[in-house]
Amino acid sequence: MEIIDGKPVNVDVAGRDFKYYIFDWDDNILHMPTRIYLEHRADDEDAWRPVSVSTGTFALVRTDAAHYRMPQDGGRAAAFRDFQDAPDAAVADLAFIRDTRAALARIRAGASPGPSFQTLRKTLREGRIFAIVTARGAAATIREAVKIFVDEVLTPSERAEMFANLRGYRYCFDRVEAFGTDVEELDYFLSMCRYHAVTNPGFKARMAGDADFGARLAEASSEQPRLRGTPLPHDAPHGRRGGAAAGGGGLLGRRSGQPAGGLRLCPLGTRAPLRRLQVRRLRHERPVP
To answer: Are 42 and 67 in contact (CB under 8 A)?
Structure first.
């Protein structure tokens, strides 16, 4: 550790390996309270009734067309209305920000965090480049949520370590010897990371023209996606189920928060292989009032 421009700088980062991390947010970093609005029909009923489910439950029931369907009034837009940011809303009032703060409050009250929670904490502490890929609708809001994570999760000593590492990278690789404020250095670091909200119209338009992922996007955007594996029964038990996209994997290829293959730092403009991502799922639903 050296003192440069009056601030601690960890010059030892020059000898580190260059790993980057890719995370999913929901049920990996945090168990968010955001609801998905569906219609449900029980085996002994003919009528469909509105119901809201957690993201974990949706991963289990999304292929169970006999018992669950998108709302007939509004379709997917109505089902995932809490996943999009309200136009012109203040940052503090955005659903993703509100739910992030609520999820962190539950952890402080004793609830378990997601399986990648501590990995993101370590990633930030070490100043590692990362990406977040999520079914949310606004990439800029994800970046704001990471700032909240830094403020509410990292201890003062962990934040001091993070800033020393960030200044170390700037000193060793950007040849910077005059540093900004902590706020400026954090903003610079977060600007180098990537945030992909896959239900954002801009992301969908970009991927629709991609030779590899255009067809997959069209399938995933259908009212009742056809996924690999057999549909899960209504009374499927908790835990992992192999085969279906909701069981044993998802979007990114490996468990969220693991290094991307232990690779050397890959230019973020390139496309890393996408496979499937293991997620933890919780069964929980409640009727819509």
So the answer is: yes
